[in-house]
Amino acid sequence: MYITGLSVSKFGQTSLTLPEMMFSAIEGALKDAALEIKDIEAIYVSNNLSASSNNQCHLGAVLAGYFPGLHLPIFSLEAACGGGGVAVHQACISLKHYQRVLVVGGEKMSVSPDMLYFVAGDADREFDQREGLVFPAAGALAASTYMQKYGATMHDFALVSYKNHQNGNLNPNAHFFGKDVTMEMIENSKVICSPLRLFDCSANTDGAAAMVMERGKRTHRSIQIIGSAFATNHINFAQDRDPTDRKEVQKAASDAFRQANLTPKDIQVAEIHDGFTPVELIMLENLSFCGRGEAVKWIREGRTSRTGSLPVNPSGGLKACGHPVGATGIRQVAEIATQLRGEAGARQVANAQTGLAYNFGSLVGSAIVHILRK
Questions:
Q1: What is the maximum alpha-carbon separation in the chain?
Q2: H helix intervals, the chain
Q3: Is the pTM of this model over 0.85?
Q4: How far apart are CA 206 and CA 228, in angstroms?
């Protein structure tokens, strides 16, 4: 399975509608692959919030309207923040049947003052939402548990934020591109839900991403997907005795590494879902890059910086690149492919040959891991 074309929009508030953003991303990915829409056999669409925030369902058929005469199958997928990763995973499976498919994801999050209410719908309605356990509260509970178990501090979380903002400042598509965010700004930002500050939380934004995926290698810029795994768990946070021990993440990672015939030590660059900064540390451990409690040492020593032993989130991550929910999982895989192509510009990780993208939905209902090779 190969990625032969990709396109990521500029993340940030835009006057474009959601279908217009997604259409533009599709056109960009087709151009990058030197193909036309008639060459595609199926499309996988990721979106989470359009029905509630834009009053628009059935996005596959809406997108078909941008391509007159298009009658191929278009599948719509939703898995909260993990929809993009699930779309890529489903596309990988479909390449046993098709020769060439396209994945696209997008979100328009600047359209409604009620967006936080809509996002809360990705939590368990019966057990969590009604008790006020929205995502910042759930993230804060996970952060507090991690601090208690391993001695992490709010300063450690600020180091994650600072690293990702440094990277995002080099990414022209990032929400925070060209914005110099300092440690002082991060540590002086207001507390949202203790111990999480404003700059520990990812940025809701507008954006879209698309990729062309093929069964075989067609050009020298094609990047191979050698592992694709997806695991699911409940999203009732009250059932989690230890929110830092993520069995579904461990399973998805184990399955992906087994498919790729690689170990975590073989990975040279990673995009790790960082909806909240402590989550990046927690997931580093659950993906088996380091032992329990060791991610704190890694961030303090700079191991996850762009020039460290395992560069994490060179794009800026969800924190600084931004988090248009339906697009994120595709954007993460596209970033790894861009890095392996050697086309990441100022944020390029030197000599990267292998990479991993980890995307999740809710905390954590869907865990999706992709491993790529140049």
A1: 59
A2: 18-33, 50-53, 59-64, 83-94, 115-120, 135-150, 154-168, 183-187, 247-260, 277-286, 295-301, 317-320, 325-341
A3: yes
A4: 27
Nearest to 204, CA basis, from 177, 178, 183, 175: 175
- C-alpha 121/C-alpha 134 separation (Å) is 9
Q: CA angle at residue 82 from 293 to 97, to 5 degrees?
A: 120
Spatial separation of the C-alpha atoms in residues 89 and 92, rounded to whole Å: 5
Q: Write down the pLDDT at residue 117.
A: 66
Instruction: List average pLDDT for each run of 10 residues in the chain, which is 374 residues long.
Output: 98 97 98 98 94 86 94 94 97 98 96 74 72 82 96 98 98 97 98 97 96 94 98 84 93 99 99 97 98 98 98 98 97 99 98 98 91 98
Decide if 329 contacts 181 (C-beta within 8 A).
Answer: no
Q: Where in the chain is the domain with CATH 3.40.47.10?
A: 2-114+207-214, 121-201+224-373
Helix axes 325-341, 83-94, angle to 10 degrees: 60
Which CATH fold would you assign to the domain 2-114+207-214? Peroxisomal Thiolase; Chain A, domain 1 (3.40.47)
Q: Which CATH superfamily is domain 121-201+224-373 in?
A: Thiolase/Chalcone synthase (3.40.47.10)
Residue 173's contacts (CB-CB under 8 Å, 6 or more residues apart) are 8, 9, 10, 11, 207, 315, 321
Handedness of CA 89, 90, 92, 93 (dihedral sign): positive
DSSP three-state, residue 100: strand
Q: Would you please indicate which residues are annotated as catalytic (active-site) residues?
A: 81, 323
Cα angle 49, 50, 51; round to 5:
95
- Residue whose C-alpha is closest to residue 363's, from 105, 86, 47, 124: 124
Which pLDDT value is given to residue 363? 80
